[in-house]
Amino acid sequence: MLTSPELAGRKTNSHAALLTREYLKTRFKEHQLTVSEQPFTYSSGLFSSAQGVNIIATNTVKDLPVIVITAHYDHLGLKAGKLHPGANDNASGVAALLYLSHALTASSSYRFMFVATDAEENGLHGSEHFAKTMRQLPIVLNINLDMLAIKKSHKRLYALTSRALKSQLNLVFTQIKGNKVKLKPIYSSRKMSRLTNTKQIDWHRASDHYSFAKQKIPYVYFSMGADNFHHSAKDTLENINTPLYQEAVLLIEAFINQLLTSPVVLSPPLKAAT
């Protein structure tokens, strides 16, 4: 559905984006979640602005520390008359978000917020608006899902993580074992650039997790790294290895469940960035 011609590449501030939001809201509600829209405006030029809308789904109203799981639903739409479906970027992350919103059970220690962010491609605008306006919440962790389609030639799922959590999350990561896909925790953007041969990319700033980092909220960013079909019309379902993708999603689920049962205690930042 997310890569269908009907959704036309899910470009921000388009009719296709509206249809995408309606689809996401329906799916979240099927999972018995409370769903709301978060509209925002951002600068799109020297004297112009544009609108975007985040979708927020929550599974409890209990006053507990919050784990925010994000995936951006926007993509490029049509470019040069060609549909850019954005299967890996980032229908893969959104589909995982929907799965996790159904699969994760209630926790006595944390509550989940599932956020489908908008306008990521234009500059992380949706996540930045969310992170800034939700500073009053006791958010202890962002788990960001962006481009999860594992390559057959490079069966690794990277987990770029805030350095501040290294000693704690190592306890969790060591318990997660994949079958064909290896979960690789990384605590340095430079190291991820070396491992993915992408020296030009600052992975710390590469996706929505950076908006949370700017608010001093730690993150775990799950991704397959670089993709030869990134931002091209060839980013289609046909170019995704479905079994490897499904295993990657299950590894993320296993990480979260292990985190919930581990002795790791996550606390809100003492002071958010201004």
Shape: globular
Helix content: 25-40%
Number of strands: 10
Amino- and carboxy-terminal Cα gap: 39 Å
Which stretches of 5+ consecutive residues score pLDDT under 50? none
CATH architecture: 3-Layer(aba) Sandwich
What's the CATH superfamily, by name? Answer: Zn peptidases
What's the SSE pattern? HEEEEEHEHEEHEHHEH
Portion in strands: 15-25%
Order of strands side by side in the largest beta sheet?
1-2-6-3-7-10-8-9
In CATH's first tier, which class applies? Alpha Beta
The structure class reads: alpha/beta
- According to CATH, the fold-level topology is Aminopeptidase
**Structural Rg:** 17 Å
Question: What this model shows, in words?
Answer:
This protein has 7 helices and 10 strands. A hairpin with a 2-residue loop joins strand 4 (77-79) and strand 5. It is α/β, with parallel strands linked by helices and 274 residues long. The chain has helices at 15-30, 87-103, 125-133, 166-173, 189-196, 209-213, 242-261; strands at 34-43, 49-58, 66-72, 77-79, 82-84, 111-117, 139-145, 156-161, 182-186, 219-223. The strands form 2 sheets. An 8-stranded mixed sheet has the order 1-2-6-3-7-10-8-9, sandwiched between helices. Strands 4-5 form a two-stranded antiparallel sheet. It has a single domain (5-261), classed as Zn peptidases (Aminopeptidase), CATH 3.40.630. Helices cover 30% and strands 23% of the residues.
Give a brief outline of the structure:
The protein has 274 residues and is of the alpha/beta class. It has helices at residues 15-30, 87-103, 125-133, 166-173, 189-196, 209-213, 242-261, and strands at 34-43, 49-58, 66-72, 77-79, 82-84, 111-117, 139-145, 156-161, 182-186, 219-223.
